[in-house]
Write a structure and sequence with these properties.
275 residues; alpha+beta; six-stranded antiparallel β-sheet; three-stranded antiparallel β-sheet; 9 strands
Length: 275
């Protein structure tokens, strides 16, 4: 029997290297995400901001999102960790129709059209339930999820971390491109990768990007990477070669040439000037 038919929701306790985290994506399910270890930049809908260990976020269906983890906060195996629970509207419908006591709870959850982060008091309750689910069997996990839904339905102690804005096709594609860069700048990125992410062929993508941004995608990517390199030069003790590789460049001389072109000085001089 298909294993998916045995589950009405998913529970995943993930331990993974930061570079292997899933790229920008969206899905038809609700997603409850708890970062148990790690920090970095989070992009959800139209908002981009820092996240830290302990953050708990609920994302409604169809909102693009990704987590870009730093590799400086990991366990001894070099892994970050998060617990993610996903469930769909079919599951919510069944809960409401099967258990009349849940109808108001489900209605309140559906009032969340934007992604929300929970304050510490509520996050502590949610994480306690999520951590307890690690040792539970499937039936026990279902009971815990019912408890979670009741907690999630309370609209107190929540903060919007991403709007479900309806954008026109142009705005939507530009937002996808910028978010893709934000979440993947430290990796090897090709024009074909990004074009595929926005369902364009290479030629159409290059023309679209240049027309709307005013520069080539390669120049845009390099400028973003150099901005991240400047942050590392000012705020870390990493040497120049480490900064180069951590910001997505794989050739130190090329990194230095691009840095000099954009900042009109070498990386070493920039660090001394901004120390």
């Amino acid at each position: 029997m298909n294993d998916n038919l045995l589950h009405s929701f998913s529970y995943n306790d993930v331990h993974i290297a930061p570079k292997n985290q899933i790229d920008l994506h969206q899905q038809s399910t609700w997603e409850l995400s708890y970062v148990s270890l790690g920090s970095g930049m989070r992009a959800i809908g139209d908002k981009t901001e820092m996240f830290n260990s302990g953050d708990v976020v609920l994302i409604p269906p169809e909102i693009p999102h990704c987590w870009s983890f730093n590799d400086s906060e990991t366990d001894i195996n070099g892994h970050v960790a998060n617990i993610t629970v996903t469930f769909d509207d079919v599951f919510l419908n069944k809960c409401a129709s099967t258990f009349p006591e849940m109808s108001v709870v489900i209605m309140k959850i559906r009032e969340n059209i934007d992604a929300v982060k929970f304050g510490k008091r509520k996050a502590d309750v949610i994480t306690s339930i999520l951590n307890g689910m690690k040792k539970e069997n499937n039936a026990e996990k279902l009971a815990s999820l019912i408890r979670l839904l009741s907690v999630l339905s309370d609209d107190k102690d929540i903060y919007i971390v991403g709007h479900n804005n309806k954008m026109d096709a142009r705005e939507y594609q530009l937002n996808l491109i910028k978010t893709y860069v934000l979440c993947n700048f430290y990796r090897s990125i090709t024009i074909d990768d990004v074009a595929r992410n926005v369902n364009m062929n290479r030629t159409s993508f290059c023309r679209f990007f240049k027309h709307n941004i005013g520069m080539s995608f390669v120049n845009y990517l390099n400028e973003y990477r150099i901005s991240k390199a400047c942050e590392l030069l000012k705020k870390s003790d990493l040497n120049i070669s480490q900064v180069c590789y951590k910001t997505g460049f794989n050739d130190i001389p090329y990194f230095c040439r691009v840095f000099r072109r954009i900042k009109c000085m070498t990386p070493s001089k920039y660090r001394i000037t901004n120390y």
